[in-house]
Every structure is written in structure tokens, then in C-alpha cells.
């Protein structure tokens, strides 16, 4: 009998570079913890890549899924559906009141919808400006939007009309705008690219530029939205509203969902037949998502995220100053943050953390990324930090 790792290695295409012997097979989760096939327990500082905002198997999410699964699992969008309607209301009223939403199944799909809407908005304007180091997905259009050549090269020719500004450099964007520009798409906090936070003046400058040129400002909050920055949406940190907002990851509490929220002025751009998704707005997924949003919006939840984010920042900054030969800088906001290293040890540190029962993420060889569940307790955070501190000593001179 083959074990799970052997089966996966034989039958799934190896796009994720899992390492036999080093990559655990996870079978159970509760709160901030997961367990592997050998019943080894891990503290999760990764949340399934920013997905499990309420931790693992949160009771509100589990019961929402159970109840809806017993009632009706799928209908198609040929019919009205209660969970979809309720989710649309809570999403719009808590992001861009007066707007509307399109529901999809992933971040890439939400961004595809945004790109299509931006292109249809003004005939002749089809170009989208994104940013170096950005990440917007893996479909052909969204990988083109992603400003990282390593993800694009094998799939050329790419989709026409994308160009890349320099993050936090307004002039670089102004130089790219022309009379065919449809919109600017940006992550207010670049996640996959290494956790870079947009400056206040940069975001405000982009808003003015878009208003002046009559083009759409699109915020990709697939990773930094859903409470991660300490606000429900990262745009709230800037007091600047985008025209289109995309969300996914944490939105479904672990089930696949994507959403594009559209500001009031642009709700009629897409018309019947322009766009669709078989599973978009699926009742089970929407019920889970409703449970997540209702929990995030409970009194005090998001201020708790800010407090825990402050604790994480202070402790990571202390680790950096205690190991000046190894640590370079802290970046982030709330519970999305990174520790950049001077030495190329990120993958090794990640491996040691896994061995010690802590799941973190290495981006390349120099960046450690932390995305713990928003429900994590301060003592769990401190436990994880203790492990990181201990391991940093091993890699420090
Ligand atoms: C900011 C951002 N946008 C889009 C995506 C793509 O989302 P998905 O993998 O759900 O298609 C990601 C995934 O990491 C992301 O971080």
C-alpha cells in the first residue's frame, strides 16, 4: 500500500514542489493548530496562505456549512439564492455601500472579472497598469497582471495591454498612463511579492491620478483584505476608496470563493451575458462566508487583530535587533507581515520551524512571511515567537 505522499507524488502534477520527508501531510485542524498523519501538532502561522482567518474548523463556519449542506448544495445562477443575496448585502454594505458584487471562486477569477469590467467600461481603453513584484493570480490575464517575469516567461505570448509601475513611485505610474489606459490594479499590501505596504501618499496619489484621467482604481485585497491589516479592508487604512475591490482567500473561511465589489458608478458596466461562473455564489460557500464576515464584524474583533499585530511587530523587531547579523527588516500591518533576512536562510529557517511544530512561509531565500489566523491568542503568538527566537539563534553568528 502506498502512503499519501507516494500517491500524491505519483498522481498529482508537481507544481507545488512538496518535499517528501520534509512536507507534512495534514489531517486535522482546530483553532490555531493542525495535526499531521503521525499526530504531530503544529502551530499555524500561515493559515493556509491567509485563508483560515478564523482558524481551523471554527464552530460558526462548520455549522453554517453543515446546515446549508443539508438544505441545498448547488443551484446554478439561473435561480435566485438566499445565501448569495445575504452575502452580497453584507459585503457591499461593509465595503462600498451603493455598490454591487460579482461572486466567483478564487482570487484570480475575481481579478479576471475586474480586468474585464475595466476593459468594458470605456471603449478603446483596454490597458491596465499593475506593479513590479505584484501577484494577481495564475490565469493567463492575471499572470500577465502579476509583475513577476518568473511566473510569466513559459506562457508567452501574454495578454496584451499590461504594464508595470514601480510600487510606491507615483511618477512611474504617471509615465505609463495614456489615452488607452482603462485602470490601475494594485495590492495595498503586496503579499506574495514579499509583504510591501503601500505608502499613504502613494495610494492617495493613485486615487487623484485615476480621478483626473477618468480611469478605474482597482484594489486587489485577495490577501490583505478580510481583516488581516486590522481593518476589514486594507483601503480603510488610507481613507481612499477604490472603484473595484477584489477579495478571496479568507472570504470563504476555507471554502473557495472570490468576489469583485464594484462602486455605485460602475454597477451597470457588466450586463447579462457579459460574465458568469457556474459555481460563483454557491449556497454552501456563501453560507460559510456569511459566518466569517459576521464574526469579523463582531464588536472588538478587528481591534484585537490590530493589538496582536502590534505584538507581532514589536517581537519581530526585537528579534531583528537581537540578531543584527541575520535580521534585516520588519514589514507589514496587522497580521500580515514579513521578516527580511540578510542571509539566504529563509527556506532553512522555515524547514526548522516545521520540524519544531510551527508553520511559517519562506518567500525566496530572504523573506519569512507570517499570516497567522486572526483568531490566534496572544499566548499562542508568543509560543510561536519563542520557537522562531530559538531557531534564529541557530542561524545567527
Ligand atoms: C493578492 C493576490 N491576488 C490574487 C491571488 C490569486 O488568488 P487565487 O490563488 O485564489 O486565484 C493571490 C494568491 O495568492 C493573491 O495573493
Mean pLDDT: 97
Count structural domains: 2
Report low-confidence residues grouped into runs of 5 or more: none
The small-molecule ligands in this entry are: pyridoxal-5'-phosphate
Helix content: 25-40%
Shape: globular
Q: Tell me the span between the first and last alpha carbons.
A: 45 Å
* Percentage of residues in DSSP E strands: 15-25%
**Rounded to an integer, what's the Rg over CA atoms?**
21 Å
Structural class: alpha/beta
* Side-by-side strand order of the widest sheet: 4-12-11-10-7-5-6
CATH architecture of the largest domain: 3-Layer(aba) Sandwich
Q: Please give the largest β-sheet.
A: 7 strands, mixed
Tell how many strands the DSSP assignment holds. 17
Order of helices and strands: HEEEHHHEHEHHEHEEEHEEEHHEEHEEEH
What is CATH's topology name of the largest domain?
Aspartate Aminotransferase, domain 2
Quick one: CATH superfamily of the largest domain?
A: Type I PLP-dependent aspartate aminotransferase-like (Major domain)
| Helix count, DSSP H or I runs of 4 or more residues | 13
Top CATH class of the largest domain = Alpha Beta
